[in-house]
Design a protein that fits this description.
The complex is a heterodimer of chains A (154) and B (713).
Chain A (H helix, E strand, L loop, with lengths): L14 H4 L1 E2 L1 H4 L3 H4 L4 H8 L7 E2 H10 L6 H12 L9 H12 L5 H15 L9 H8 L5 H4 L5
Antiparallel strand pairs in A: 1-2
Chain B lengths: L1 H15 L1 H5 L2 H12 L4 H6 L13 H9 L9 H10 L3 H15 L6 H14 L4 H20 L7 H11 L1 H35 L13 H4 L11 E2 L3 E2 H30 L10 H7 L9 H23 L6 H34 L9 H34 L3 H34 L18 H37 L9 E2 L2 H18 L6 H23 E2 L10 H26 L17 H7 L4 H11 L1 H53 L2 H8 L2 E5 L7 E5 L1
Parallel strand pairs in B: 3-4
Antiparallel strand pairs in B: 1-2, 5-6
Classes of the chains: A mainly alpha (154), B mainly alpha (713).
Organism (chain B): Mytilus galloprovincialis
Membrane topology (chain B): Multi-pass membrane protein
GO cellular component, one term (chain B): plasma membrane
Chain lengths: 154, 713
């Protein structure tokens, strides 16, 4: 599916980890080709954060997105996906970038700012202007269909 | 002096505001590690920082805690830390610790490689290899079992997945609901057929005379009640008893499955009833449906999401209270429309009743038409009403100007009410059909009064079957001739009026399914094979809906669904069960079965078969049981139950109020107090406090989700 010619046939001796498929290749996958968060997803799951994926990373990715994955793990990785700058907090900047991913250019900056303000007002329990993991988990556990939608089928 | 004040500061944080501060160790640690600005292991160990104490000081709790938060990727070396922690324990504790780690490993957000490494490490340390072998064995048998038992549950999996690539998981949930109903019916159908139909088929269907038969030969086939024998088959199989017991068993089976499903779902859904508080947050974080991967699907979804966000922003920015006149006007409009709704409900109920009971075409109409009309009047009216009334309701709600979510709920409520009303009226008119025949009193049995040969159970069964057929026909017709035709018009640009493709209405479709299931339950006693027809119908509905959805529908515009609707549908299904099974149960217990056909023709009441074959209640129970059955007991019991229900309802609503109040209080505290607390917290770095007082802090992982800091002297 993804350049099968390049993949070595023998995956023993740590090849599962050392051989990688490059980010642009991975993004061509049908299941995530149109996903607005595709780049983030690849980067979160690739071990060095570059977006290049080894076989192990691939397994990781689809085990998290599978139906059977527990809620905690899904929440954790959702948090990582939204945490664009990888500082373990979802700040204003991250929120804006999330919204840009979601809506492309259909919302004006003004509207985005309004939403960011609202999101922080609703969720930021300690008023530090960003969401920690615990705050994020608190919100996402209220979502009626997070478990159904955070799910990629292969 | 300064030590003391710092001490106070930390106490305040630890005890007085545990909820706001102590629940988030990550946040706190981040603050302090920033302020100290250290990264190397040793200097961090000097100040308090649970992230990276030197390996020799890692406690088992630390390891577990850090496994939980392993995604932070901050120098947590699982294998080293695990070994270090293990070295502090004695043998017994060690194996317990290992087990805990293994149990938690699956839910730990570490990468596959790290998890495998840790697992290998643990297993290489365990000298008893038995456990490992055992586990491997277990897991293989488990996976094998899983593959086998879940095959029927994966029916149409591929199709549904393809569909959700465009429509998203909400629409997929409709098809999954259909699949569940189908499987349920197949299971029940197997029971019915193997205990009722197969024994009868061995003997051949019982022949009987029936003056009124509308289905021709079908009426005398085993599809309907009449052809089941009232005697023992081959002198050994007690058919009447089997008939009634199987019916009871199957009905109970449905009830149990629904109840269990509700329970499971209820436990799965965490307290999500206050999703209203997080409107924007949830729209940002959980609005994206990762199951969608087709290009158009993504585009439509994005568009819908943007529309909704914009709408919400507009609503939020608008001044809350409209002017008095507009409000008055709106209230007036709502009163009027509610009256109309009630009128529609009552009117349609009366119409069904009237058509079933009294209505006759004028004599001048041609006899052919009259015959046809006689045959189908009741079912046609029921189905037509079902088709148009919900549309009217949706139209009315548009006029009333509710906010979108309440509009959804109100339509749902009204439509459900309508379905129930029509089921009840249908019940009643069936009862009328029945009483035409069963007027012959019980004492006449045995004397063959051949003047009126009739079999009212068959007639009831036929009526229900007709409604089922017409329902199916309408579903196909509406799909093909309305939605698909509309789509064709739009695609060929024939029509000059601006038309839009229809949305996939999940709510109405699910209610349709529930209604269909209700019909099956209603007819189950009178026509055992109605289940088979129901199964075929579900198959047909599935493919029709699939085809129509793919050809002619767009994904629903409302991205956000009313929360916990899944459980709500199950609840309606449960109510429908009561509405459909209870009248039948009443029939069995009270109405005398027709004397000319069916398994109970020799009985006074169908229920007698149980008391005859199994035996009556023992003497000492007889009187109390009879007494319990009288109105004198039943009515007070019902009232009592209602009161209890009301009491709990009131209690829960008072809890809801309390929760609201507490939340408001929390918000207030946050606004006013927090800054102050934060300021003092920031001025007394935790690390220095702990160093100065020599206290040791540890995280309590067991008790709560949020580690609370305890001080230990």
């Amino acid at each position: 599916m993804l350049s099968p010619g390049n993949v070595p046939e023998d995956m023993r001796d740590g090849k599962t980890n050392s051989f990688r498929i490059l980010l642009p290749e991975v993004q061509k996958m049908t299941e995530i080709k149109e996903n607005p968060f595709k780049e983030r997803i690849c980067k979160v799951f690739s071990e060095d954060g570059s977006g290049d994926m080894s076989f192990d990373d691939f397994l990781d990715m689809f085990s998290v997105f599978s139906e059977a994955a527990p809620r905690d793990i899904k929440t954790t990785y959702a948090f990582k996906i939204y945490d664009f700058d990888c500082d373990n907090f979802i700040g204003r900047d991250d929120l804006e970038r999330t919204l840009t991913c979601l809506t492309k250019n259909e919302l004006s900056d003004d509207e985005k700012q309004f939403i960011v303000d609202k999101v922080l007002e609703e969720t930021d329990l300690d008023d530090d202007g960003m969401l920690s993991y615990i705050e994020f988990e608190h919100v996402i556990s209220r979502s009626p269909d997070f478990l159904n939608t955070f799910h990629i089928r292969i | 002096m300064s030590t003391k004040s710092q001490n106070n500061g930390s106490d305040e944080m630890g005890e007085e505001t545990p909820l706001l501060l102590a629940k988030d160790p990550l946040l706190r640690v981040r603050t302090y590690s920033h302020s100290s600005g250290t990264t190397s292991h040793h200097s961090e160990a000097a100040t308090f920082d649970f992230r990276a104490p030197p390996p020799s000081h890692v406690t088992p709790e630390d390891v577990l805690q850090r496994m939980r938060y392993a995604f932070r990727n901050d120098g947590f070396d699982a294998e080293n830390d695990f070994e270090a922690a293990q070295s502090m324990l004695n043998t017994l504790e060690r194996s317990a610790f290992r087990d805990t780690v293994l149990d938690n490993l699956k839910e730990t957000p570490m990468s596959m490689r790290e998890r495998l490494g840790l697992r290998r490490l643990i297993y290489s340390k365990t000298h008893t290899r038995r456990r490992r072998e055992q586990e491997i064995e277990e897991s293989t048998t488990k996976s094998v079992n899983r593959n086998y038992t879940f095959v029927p549950f994966n029916l149409w999996e591929e199709t549904i997945a393809n569909l959700s690539a465009y429509f998203g998981s909400n629409v997929a949930s409709y098809f999954k609901f259909l699949r569940i109903l189908l499987l349920l019916n197949i299971a029940a159908g197997i029971l019915m057929i193997s205990f009722i139909t197969v024994p009868q088929a061995i003997d051949g269907p019982q022949s009987f005379n029936s003056s009124i038969s509308q289905f021709g030969w079908l009426s005398k086939s085993m599809l309907l009640f009449g052809s089941y024998s009232s005697d023992k088959i081959n002198n050994s199989y007690n058919q009447p008893l089997a008939y009634i017991l199987t019916w009871m068993g199957v009905s109970l089976f449905y009830l149990i499955v629904i109840a269990v499903a509700m329970h499971v779902r209820y436990r799965q859904s965490k307290l999500s009833d206050n999703a209203d508080d997080y409107e924007f947050a949830l729209r940002t974080f959980s609005a994206w449906d990762h199951t969608i991967y087709s290009k158009e699907g993504v585009k439509d979804r994005r568009k819908a999401l943007c529309m909704e966000l914009k709408e919400r922003i507009r609503e939020e920015r608008k001044a809350r209270k409209p002017r008095l006149e507009t409000r008055l006007l709106r209230y007036l409009g709502r009163i009027i429309s509610n009256t109309i709704v009630l009128g529609l409900l009552g009117g349609s109920g009366y119409l069904v009743y009237y058509v079933a009971d009294e209505f006759e075409l004028p004599d001048s109409t041609p006899t052919e038409l009259k015959k046809l009309f006689d045959k189908y009047q009741l079912s046609a009216v029921v189905s037509l009403l079902k088709l148009f009334i919900p549309l009217l309701f949706e139209f009315l709600v548009h006029l009333e100007g509710w906010p979108p979510r309440s509009a959804l709920k109100i339509t749902l409520f009204r439509t459900t009410l309508f379905y129930f009303a029509s089921l009840v009226v249908f019940d009643m008119s069936l009862h009328n059909v029945a009483s035409e025949c069963s007027s012959a009193s019980c004492s006449d049995k045995g004397i063959n009064t051949t003047e009126v040969v009739c079999c009212w159970e068959n007639r009831v069964g036929e009526e229900v079957l007709k409604v089922v057929f017409i329902d199916l026909g309408l579903c196909i017709a509406v799909g093909l001739f309305f939605h698909v035709a509309k789509a064709l018009f739009i695609k060929c640009r024939i029509c000059c009026i601006q038309l839009e493709l229809s949305e996939f209405g999940i709510t109405s479709s699910v209610l349709d399914l529930i209604y269909g299931q209700g019909l099956i339950w209603l007819g189950l006693y009178f026509s055992p094979l109605i289940i088979v027809i129901g199964i075929i119908k579900l198959f047909v509905v599935f493919y029709t809906q699939l085809f129509v959805a793919k050809m002619a529908m767009v994904a629903p515009k409302k991205v956000f669904r009313a929360s916990r609707s899944g459980n709500f549908y199950l609840f309606i299904l449960l109510l429908t069960w009561f509405l459909c099974i209870l009248p039948t149960a009443y029939t069995i217990a009270e109405v005398s079965p027709s004397a000319d056909c069916g398994p109970f023709k020799k009985m006074c009441k169908a229920y007698d078969v149980i008391s005859h074959s199994i035996g009556t209640w023992p003497d000492w129970l007889e009187e109390p049981v009879q007494y319990i059955g009288t109105a004198a007991v039943i009515i007070p019991v019902i009232i009592l139950l209602l009161l209890v229900a009301l009491y709990y309802r009131a209690k829960s609503s008072s809890y809801a109020d309390l929760i609201k109040e507490l939340r408001n209080q929390l918000k207030f505290e946050r606004k006013v107090e927090k800054r102050k607390v934060y300021a003092s917290a920031l001025s007394t770095p935790f690390g220095t406090a702990s160093k100065a007082t020599g206290q040791k802090y540890e995280f309590d992982v067991e008790q709560t989700n949020f580690p609370i800091i305890k001080t230990k002297t």
